[in-house]
Amino acid sequence: MTKRIMIVDDEPHNLAILRIFLNSLGYEVFEAECGKDALVNVMDILPDLILLDVMMPDLSGFNVAEIWRDQPGFNIPIVFLSAKVQKDDILQGLQLGAVDYLTKPFDLDLIEKKISIVIANRTEILNLKSENAELSLKVNIDPVTSLYNRNYLQSVIEQVKEGGMQFAIAMMIDIDYFKEINDEHGHLMGDQVLKEVAKIILSSIRAGHDAAFRYGGDEFLVLLVEERNYLSIAESIRGQVDALNLITPFKRSIQVSVSLGLSKSYKYKTTERVIACADTALYDAKNRGRNRIYIS
């Protein structure tokens, strides 16, 4: 993919020289003739590198870099190009987060080498971040069901607390007589049952809002953001599982059902307490005959 470079300079002559030179090197070039234009357009362009002049009539390059530095998540590398060659100026530019400070009149060979190094380093960092994000996701996902695992639950609770929110409904779901399924049909079929139940749960909630976890061996936790339609969601999960018709490799049919315990958050102060009450309601559902819903 062609790398993008944004040049911010109020001198048309400098812009023209750099544009022609960088285009000849295969870069896609974008220009801004003042600091305000750079601030407005940078997130639409999302360049891989910014060449930033210091002395401009509206906002200095230092002002622009300081604004970008204070923006959460801004990680585009900046190289200053400036006629200000005093040591204090160079130090100020580097202290504002620039990866380099080159003086005018600029040396095109030096600029080519510097740009190549900066973009290569940024590409490597972005690749590492992507790999770390994938690893982090794998750590938080149960490999059998593809639901979040229990280890990730506390992180989700903390994120919700930081946002000043709380899940409206906690729903504990347990597969009835799951041990007998494993004992009679083997663990591979047991895993298949877990996968099918997880698919039903995921299809019944809103991705990106609600959250579903494999809480224990055959126990699942669902956290709903809104109270609206929670009974319909629970009944849909119970009914779809009850309608499953799983066939073993030996052509034997497996009947599957789930019991559900529900708890409303407005009764309790913490998400942890809501989950605990949903777990108690689940045991009530199982004690009352299984394949049913009980609300605490």
TrEMBL record:
PROSITE patterns for the chain: GGDEF, RESPONSE_REGULATORY
GO molecular function list: diguanylate cyclase activity
Residues of the GGDEF domain: 166-296
Protein's name in the database: Diguanylate cyclase
Highest taxon of source: Bacteria
Alphabetized SUPFAM superfamilies for the sequence: CheY-like (SSF52172), Nucleotide cyclase (SSF55073)
GO BP annotation list: cell adhesion involved in single-species biofilm formation; negative regulation of bacterial-type flagellum-dependent cell motility; phosphorelay signal transduction system
Residues modified as 4-aspartylphosphate: 53
SMART domains: GGDEF, REC
Keywords: Phosphoprotein
InterPro entries per record: CheY-like_superfamily, Diguanylate_Cyclase, GGDEF_dom, Nucleotide_cyclase, Rev_trsase/Diguanyl_cyclase, Sig_transdc_resp-reg_receiver
Pfam families linked: GGDEF, Response_reg
Alphabetized NCBIfam families for the sequence: GGDEF (TIGR00254)
Limits of the Response regulatory domain: 4-119
One CC-aspect GO term: plasma membrane
Keyword Coiled coil included in the entry's annotation: no
